[in-house]
Write a structure and sequence with these properties.
Radius of gyration of chain B: 21 Å
Number of helices of chain A: 11
Distance between the termini of chain A: 29 Å
Oligomer: heterodimer
Largest interface: A-B, 68 and 69 residues
Largest sheet of chain A: 8 strands, mixed
Chain lengths: 429, 467
Amino acid sequence: MRHLLLATIMLAVSSPVFAETIAITGGKLVIGDGTAPIDGGTVVIRDGTIVAAGSNVVVPAGARRIEATGKWVTPGVFAGFSRLGLSEVDAVNGTNDKSSGKSGFSAGIDIAPAIDPFRTPFAVNRAAGVTRAVVAPDAGDNMFAGQGAIADLGADASPITKARAFQFAEFGEAGAGLTGGSRAGTFATFRAMLREAQEYAAGNANFDDELLRAEDARALLPVLRGETRLLVHVEGANDINNLINLRKEFPAIKMVFVGASEGWRVADNIAAAGISVIASALNDLPASFEMVGATQSNIGRMKNAGVKVAIGMINDRDSHQLRYSTQYAGNLVSLKRVPGATGLSWNDAFAAISSIPAEIMGMGDRLGSLKAGKAADVVIWDGDPLELSSAAVTVMIDGVEQPLANRQARLRERYARPTEGDLPKAYDR
Amino acid sequence: MVLVRAARYTACLLPLALMACSASEVPKSASSKLADKPAAKAAAPFPSTYKAYPSIATAIRNVTIFDGEGGRIDNGVVFMSGGKISSVGGAETSIPADIAVFDGTGKYVTPGIIDVHSHLGDYPTPSVEAHSDGNEATSPTTPEVWAEHSVWPQDPGFSRALVNGGITTLQILPGSANLMGGRSVTLKNVYARTVQGMKFPGAPYGLKMACGENPKRVYGAKGKMPSTRMGNLAVNRQTWIKAQEYRKKRDSGKDFVRDLGMETLAGVLDGEILIHNHCYRADEMALVLDMAKEFGYKVSTFHHAVESYKIADLLRDAGVCSAVWADWWGFKMEAYDAIPENAALVHNSGACTIIHSDDENQIQRLNQEAAKAQADGRRMGINISDAEVIRWLTYNPAKALGISEKTGSLKLGKMADVVLWNGNPLSVYSRPEKVWIDGALLFDSADPKRRPVSDFELGQPGEGDVK
């Protein structure tokens, strides 16, 4: 983002250098809210914000026109769960900032400074139409991984849309591994840490700083008050049920489930609890015993039960391949034609990677769809954005047209012919 | 957490679960005289007991056919009987009366999809430590181990590969922790009580080798050789020298003590066992090609060959296949220069291109990975037809595995390994509708009884569910 706001708690929106009105016309327009695409739709953008989008939109005089006939115009992809910007090369430790496990901090970790917009995954995923991402820390040695951020993928020095946007915690098998080896330990730890945070807030001398540091306690207080969402990684049906019950002890907590491979088995409970889910779209293997019931129909079934579900990619190439979001959404559409399977309509599938993740993160009023007043994160595609043959041709973030170059493209150009010319390849650029 | 994530990645990626991948073609060594070889005379141990399941003569009409060798027939007919392809042709193709006939209007037929790089069975799900059987990471060279002795035939992953991916044949490789990881095994994707019951009859063995980061990291961390890439090459060459000596001894007619590892390596030098070499970087592939020349063997396939595009001409001239992902990159240093146009560039140079998975999830959508690679090529001006792209998933991997005379394309007399797709397989919206293996209908999306459920999943939540 070009324009850095000091108050990072608030949604920061970048503004274009020159106040400009842009009209994108003629394209197949996808609003992103689950409504059907509009043929020949128009999007009007002013000062980085959507002014209007639809079929009967008047192009303001003086607007710069972008002709999109034969193309698709959509909100940018909102990656529902990622570690974007936290590593350049996963297996090269020096470039990998996902986990702060040895810091001694837990909930107090703030991932924002580790999100590096100059890392290659920003450029590569931006070129694929990903414009915003939920970025979570990885748990180190505590079930509370720390505070995640909402990032934008703009080619500038300010990647943070909203810092400390949520707290991330591990339950289930991973949580058990971080809390002594048993899920029982996870629940005890969870209760104890929240209780200690309250002790800290009350200035109680009994505050147990061996369980958590003051920094961690301060980070848990807005979670307890429901001001900051708590994203919880959970996969198994029983763990989900237990979490739903646990939340009753802390009714203010705004809990969101992440992963939820067996969510379909308890979908009615999730719906009744009003908990939203950022689910892995294509898990269908019993990768662990908490995922024995995994099926690609999970998201469709949860949605049919009334759960608000977005697509996320926890632990699934989540630092580099957010560009898979469109492919995953397309796969859920394909299920509509598989007997016995439950998929999503095209419109719902696209919403699952645009408006719904924005809404689940509490930012649906500003992000995720092409409606008046929202940030102009707009992508023009050369075809159906969920189809494998399509690509983004124009990417705007906050109304700013983004460069689509990256080092993969440079390598491609250098080696379009593999053999050397008059000079070594090292001179070919 | 880290371990959980590691388990999700393919064995090839991880420091601990390192796997190697490579495919090789059958070398034809003029000097090899099979009849003289004691090892060749003995009955091969652990023989395949696979038998085709009963089939009925079946035809699909009005269907778009990609034959696996680059051919396309619109409004065509595929007829299979006796477990074999009996005819493939246009609408005029005659078929007998009294056979099962499916209308393929709007649908597509391809040969069964083949994955040259899988760890189903040796890194099965659930991915628990007790199932981690892919890397004998106790010595940098373990040519004596055979992947088939690690394969758990109840891996639920086989069923997903079948029903979502149309996979009918797959090569199970040892991991890539070792320079020489052991023998691979090629399987029919048909559940059996024993691994022998899945073994592809007559398929040659492969030897898994690995370049680069994994071997040097695993053994360097143990304070052992190799700890560098030069160490990798040195250990390899020393081992090939021993294999040459062993082969001489074996062929001398004198008594000698069998050595399982040396038997495998001698089999490579004989041209009977195919080299499948996990190798990411272009410079390392070039070194391996020279090492192969030095010792007189041939590399069938470089697996994970993310930099093949840099030496596509060398690979074409050497006749070596590149087995690649569409777009994986950045998970490790040697994958840093991966680009999504790799497959198209390799194909465009005239070299053999294969899309592989090394992954229990992406094996379920190799067709989609191929489609992405095709589109990335098209955007840089390399136009590769759909029918050609299907070759990356069928005939080319069959060739790399030494089974292209038997499967991999819809040609008369070949195994009736056939997928009927409910749309163009290169679209994200398409899925397998029916899959036949040796003519037997082993998946039918409309019939829950034709959906395999492994022992592990029986009696579990979601048993028999769509997956």
